[in-house]
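User:
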Amino acid sequence: MKSSLSKYQIYNDMEPIKIDITILAPVNKVWKYFNEPEHITQWNFASDTWECPSAEVDLKEGGRFTTRMQAKDGSFGFDLVGIYDEIIPEKSITYHMEDQRKVKVIFDKVDENTTKVTEIFDPEKQNPVEMQRDGWYAILNNFHKYVENH
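Assistant: Predicted structure:
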């Protein structure tokens, strides 16, 4: 497994983190809800005490996205910014963040009404790997619930 992930490992010497979830929805719906700002603002946060009030997406290679993530009480917030490196519609998205960490999102069509979403990302150095995995997974699980319920 290590060799297949190594091409994403340019940021640091830490092993990339891989998470996935299976969503009971067709791949075209999953792709749309993952990439359209009006949907991103509905799911892109890790807990009910956070929100994503805005999202901007220029879904093309070299394009950028910005999502605002903040605590609902206004105590903390940040903009997540990424630049798209490769887009294969309804298959995968590869991008890098401002600090050059790489992320790859894979959309696997399991059958007509089931899609597996896998995220592989370089960890940052400030927080424990397990905390990062849990945070990213919480957001992916929010996405899963949103897609299946809308």
